[in-house]
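Justification of computing resources. Each target in the renewal requires a structure prediction run like the one illustrated here; the chain below, 130 residues long, is used simply to show the kind of job we budget for.
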Amino acid sequence: MLLSTHQMNKVEEVCDRALMIHHGRMVLYGTVREIRRRHADHAVVIRTEDRLDDIPGVKSVESINGDHKLTLEPDTAPEVVLRALIDRQVRIESYALASLPLEDIFVKVVREGVGPDPVASAAPSSREAR
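Resulting structure tokens:
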């Protein structure tokens, strides 16, 4: 089934794969999960009421609507931060990799002129299109 829409939230709800076009040119293609993973910030989002000071591997902490976005140092894996939080006995209500909505990813790719990744965003083969 083919869905053509400008409502990226609908794409996230319904679609497995997405092909995004800007001015007649493909700028993104792949599974929704892979597109979001490729364009994710190197960060995690945590919900806790505990303080989040001086956590190893965390570059910055930003509070957003009751959650905390922890931007990680380039060489820090998310599971290392999770282990540090557990070791400090931080009460964690939720913990997830930070990801951007598809609409924000599309705008970012168009603004930065990044264009498609020739391997990951290759046009669908006839087999995939079925």
